[in-house]
Design goal:
By secondary structure, this protein is of the alpha/beta class. The longest helix has about 30 residues, at about 10-40.
Length: about 850
């Protein structure tokens, strides 16, 4: 007689509501910590948070695998006390993080970096306990509910997706420094939904922990801006006042009133002799402690300084021009262009808060005055140029602060962007791009390389005849025209620069050696190898290399830096370092621009992630020792399958986030949409996987076909589709982003639970969970480095290979015995348990799969 298997679905579902809340709280706190780093430190160091999260999950998976039987035996007690422990660990960890004296600038100093490495270790010590406990809880739920893997993983992913959405929503109302304390609440609330007789105990412990945790956070030293942030000095100047504040996921904005705040314009040292007033006083707008723009005080905009500004030369070359302004600098660029004689202006402002300030004002700063000559356009600069069409503008003027104003703005200086600008110009028109040369002239050379490719694509054989470069000591202006510059244009520019003590670094037919004698601003070449200047007299480091770059030949800087075009596939502006020369970079840490440090942080995180992943990969050796040396045949497929999934999922996600950032012209909303959509749809896919347990290979094949088909479509048609729909409304484009993410996310949700079902409920179950987490740590820095140096399309190509590998190694036979409930006692042997006890421990860490005939036999065994 066959014993009837109990219906566990209702009990399992009840047990998963707390998992849903735990996942929500953990991902919410992860987002809160990355926001803290962006505001108080620098966002590049937020990668550590991802590393710590996944390291904690991976470690918890290994520990659960090693002590699987003990964890299962004490599962109810652990499930009861872990939420309270997580609340305390999160509160203490966050307080220690905010008190950490880490200083990134000292990390770049050869004499002070050892202390900062210790401080980095303190971050790990502070946060790893919380994420370890969170991973332990999730691993525990997998072990206790191994017959409902698809449902478990679905609740986990959907909870994580909604946790990300919750955190992003709270960023509109909660100060970034208070996000983590608020997001402790879902962790404590999870205990109210715990099934079983001990839920009252868990609720009491969690409530007490929440009160204690909040007390720890609010009674401790409050978080603050670090002294190296740009806002620190002006904010602490006597009389300084914050006159407006905006809280958003894209950043924490402060409008600062201070006597030091002025228009950030590069003006001539001769302005006084020319009778031209200097830049006026303004408000300063800061995002996450970094200054992004000047905003005007009440009254009409004062742009009397415009004729002495470096950006004014194109208006001397083209009288009464029609202008496309890319980046409006709080409205001052509009006032400058009108002062310099622009007849009409189309303006594009890619930073949403800056755009809002232009249309509606911000705090005491007024909106841009209505002027029939000025039109504000929606969307990014490429969309604006495409909509305008040919013969639309005399000047397309990219402001000096445009690239740094918003992460998505880097696409405005890519090869595709320059090609769109050139196509929108009238004959004889010019694109004017400002580049900072304070750190390295290499950024100017990269823009030149990009301009060369755009000119070549337009059919221009000699790009050098279509480029003019002039500069101050701090910035260079690159003028690019689809028409060769005439001798008259060159003469006008030279006379204009001489009057203002600016230097012409390139003109067609220029004699670089002869030009050195008349330099106003010395710009010596510096050897990155030695850190020493290589010039014996007046020099122009840009002029020395322009001919080589425009001719497509190697230049001296190309030995140490990437002097290559920026494209939509590889748009990172601050990506000039050759990472293969890591030893030289480490020796020159003190002279590297802050914007370049992110790549080195990624390398450091990648290195430690690989070590963690290899340790997790080696964990089965420990399983066998704990099994008493029993020599059972282990299976190697999980060691390939789950790392492939951990890597592949993140590669697809990061690709989608980047493309959505360009499409929506906003990185923050792209991140929110893609992350939430992928987690929720993947969670739904995981629930579907639970219904496919009897045919895992077929389900996996369907998922693989969808993934590969989607990747092929993205590689072939995504860019063309985006270009054709750039002029759609933001809401329409956001809907298209979610629509694009949905099918691949559903398919990506299938393989992981299918694989977990196959490994069974032994030690390999939590180990597989840990493997996925460990290689997810590897994926994030690896994807960032690949997109920087190879291109975002490479992420999809590698992801396709990884998912194909996962399909190939997944066993054909389903683990039927472990997915169909077998006979269980009618009454649980554990009086405190609300779920059936786990099956007896198996000695084999990778149990052999059971065929269908064996499964039937096990169900028909006598009671």
């Amino acid at each position: 007689m066959t014993a009837a298997a109990p219906d566990l679905t209702g009990k399992t579902r009840a047990a998963l509501i707390p998992l849903f809340l735990i996942a929500m709280g953990v991902v919410g706190i992860e987002n809160a910590l990355t926001r803290y780093f962006a505001v108080a430190k620098w966002s590049e160091y937020g990668y550590w948070i991802i590393s710590i999260v996944m390291a904690g999950f991976a470690l918890s998976g290994v520990v659960t695998a090693l002590f699987r039987d003990s964890v299962a035996r004490h599962g109810v007690i652990l499930r009861t006390i872990l939420p309270a422990a997580m609340v305390i660990a999160a509160a203490v960890g966050y307080q220690l993080v905010t008190a950490n004296p880490f200083n990134p600038l000292q990390l770049q100093n050869p004499t002070t970096w050892p202390d900062q490495v210790k401080n980095i270790g303190l971050y790990y010590a502070a946060l790893l306990p919380f994420f370890f406990l969170a991973g332990l809880y999730i691993s525990l739920i997998f072990v206790l509910n191994h017959r409902e893997i698809g449902r478990v993983y679905g609740y986990d992913l959907i909870g994580a997706g909604l946790g990300a959405a919750l955190a992003l929503g709270l960023m509109f109302v909660v100060h970034p420094f208070l996000l983590a304390p608020v997001l402790l609440v879902p962790l404590a609330l999870s205990t109210l939904f715990q099934p079983g007789r001990l839920n009252w105990l868990g609720a009491g412990l969690a409530g007490a922990a929440l009160v204690a945790g909040e007390a720890i956070l609010f009674l401790g030293a409050p978080p603050a801006f670090s002294e190296f942030k740009a806002i620190y000095a002006p904010l602490n100047t006597p009389g300084a006042a914050v006159v407006a504040e905006i809280r958003q996921p894209r950043g924490h904005y402060l409008l600062l009133e201070n006597f030091t705040e002025r228009v950030d314009a590069d003006v001539s040292n001769n302005a006084g002799l020319m009778g031209i007033a200097g830049p006026p006083s303004t408000y300063g707008l800061y995002r996450d402690g970094n200054r992004i723009a000047s905003l005007p005080r009440a009254g009409p905009l004062d742009a009397a300084y415009a004729p002495s500004a470096l950006s004014a030369a194109p208006y001397a070359l083209r009288q009464s021009p029609t202008v496309l302004l890319v980046g409006l600098s709080g409205g001052f660029r509009v006032a400058e262009a009108l002062t310099l004689g622009a007849s009409s202006i189309d303006g594009v402002e890619g930073e949403p808060v800056l755009r809002h300030a232009l249309t509606a004002g911000l705090g005491p700063s007024p909106a841009l005055a209505v002027d029939a000559r000025v039109t504000l356009l929606d969307g990014g600069p490429i969309a604006a140029a495409w909509r305008a069409g040919p013969n639309s503008y005399d000047i397309i003027d990219v402001s000096a602060d445009f690239v740094d104003a918003a992460p998505a703005n880097v696409t405005g200086v890519t090869e595709e962007a320059l090609a769109a600008y050139l196509a929108a110009l009238k004959p004889g028109g010019a694109v004017s791009i400002s580049v900072s040369i304070r750190d390295f002239p290499v950024y100017a050379l990269r823009v030149l390389s990009t301009a060369r490719q755009a000119l070549l694509a337009k059919g221009i054989a000699d790009p050098s005849a279509h480029v003019l470069i002039y500069r101050s000591a701090w910035n260079a202006r690159i003028l690019i025209s689809p028409t060769a510059w005439s001798p008259e244009d060159v003469a006008v520019l030279q006379a204009w620069c001489a009057e203002r003590s600016f230097d012409v670094s390139w003109r067609p037919g220029m004699d670089v050696v002869a030009a050195r004698a008349a330099l106003f601003n010395d710009l010596p070449s510096v050897s990155f190898e030695t850190g020493q200047m290589t010039s014996d007299g007046p020099d122009d480091a840009i002029a020395n290399e322009v001919a080589a770059v425009l001719g497509g030949r190697p230049s001296p800087s190309s030995e140490a830096f990437h002097v290559r075009p920026a494209t939509l596939d590889r748009p990172a502006f601050y990506s000039s370092l050759r990472l293969e020369r890591l030893d030289t970079l480490i020796k020159r840490l003190e002279v590297l621009p802050q914007a370049e440090i992110g790549a080195l942080v990624n390398i450091a995180v990648l290195g430690q992630a690989i070590v963690i992943a290899l340790l997790v990969l080696a964990a089965p050796a420990l399983f066998r020792r704990r099994a008493g040396g029993v020599n059972e045949k282990s299976k190697v497929w999980p060691a390939l399958y789950f790392p492939a999934l951990g890597l592949g999922f993140l590669l697809v996600e990061i690709f989608l986030i980047d493309k959505a950032a360009f499409y929506l012209n906003d990185y923050s909303s792209a991140f929110a949409l893609v992350l939430t959509a992928m987690l929720i749809f993947s969670g739904l896919g995981s629930m579907i996987a639970g219904q496919c347990a009897r045919m895992p290979k077929a389900a996996s094949l369907i998922g693989l076909i969808v993934v590969l088909g989607w990747i092929g479509a993205m590689l072939v048609g995504a860019e063309d589709f985006m270009m054709r729909t750039l002029d759609q409304s933001w809401a329409m484009k956001a809907g298209l982003v979610v629509l694009a993410a949905a099918p691949v996310s559903l398919a990506l949700g299938l393989p992981f639970p299918l694989g977990l079902i196959q490994v069974g409920d032994g030690r390999a179950l939590p180990w597989a969970w840990g493997l996925n987490g460990a290689f997810s740590v590897v994926a994030t820095p690896l994807a960032n480095l690949m997109s920087r140096d190879v291109g975002f399309s490479s992420l999809l190509i590698v992801a396709a290979g990884l998912y194909a590998l996962a399909f190939l190694v997944l066993p054909v036979a389903a683990a039927v015995r472990k997915t169909i409930p077998v006979f269980e006692p009618a009454v649980p042997t554990n009086p405190f348990a609300d779920l059936p006890d786990p099956e007896p421990a198996r000695l084999d860490p990778f149990p052999a799969q059971t065929g269908p005939s064996q499964s039937v036999q096990s169900q028909t065994s006598p009671a």
